[in-house]
């Protein structure tokens, strides 16, 4: 449906605006992987995943405010 297409495009823009080192974390999170699965896939600690996801959320909130999405 159109709504899903718009959502997918919006999320792609949000991921593209992230620094390169955060994109893989965001992509795996959006694919539905758990923190543990992301850590295993990216060969890092779960704590690293938690820290990276916190930074991603903060950046996405800032971006949403800039774009008027919030």
Looking at this protein, list some descriptive labels.
single chain; mainly alpha; 80% helix
Care to describe what's here?
The protein has 70 residues and is mainly alpha-helical. Helices cover 80% and strands 0% of the residues. The chain has four helices and no strands. It has helices at residues 2-16, 20-30, 35-42, 46-67. It is globular and about 35 Å long. The model has no long low-confidence stretch (mean pLDDT 91).
Helical content class: over 70%
End-to-end distance: 23 Å
* Count of DSSP-assigned helices: 4
SSE-based structural type: mainly alpha
Q: Approximately what portion of the residues adopt beta-strand conformation?
A: under 5%
- Taking all residues together, what is the mean pLDDT? 91
> Which of globular, elongated, flat, extended, rod-shaped describes the shape?
globular
Biggest pleated sheet: none
Radius of gyration: 13 Å
């Amino acid at each position: 449906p159109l709504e899903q297409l718009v959502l997918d495009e919006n999320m792609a823009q949000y991921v593209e605006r992230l620094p390169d080192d955060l994109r893989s974390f965001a992509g795996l999170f959006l694919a539905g992987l758990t923190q543990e699965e992301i850590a295993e896939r990216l060969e890092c600690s779960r704590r690293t995943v938690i820290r990276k996801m916190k930074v991603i959320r903060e950046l996405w909130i800032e971006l949403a405010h800039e774009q008027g999405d919030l």
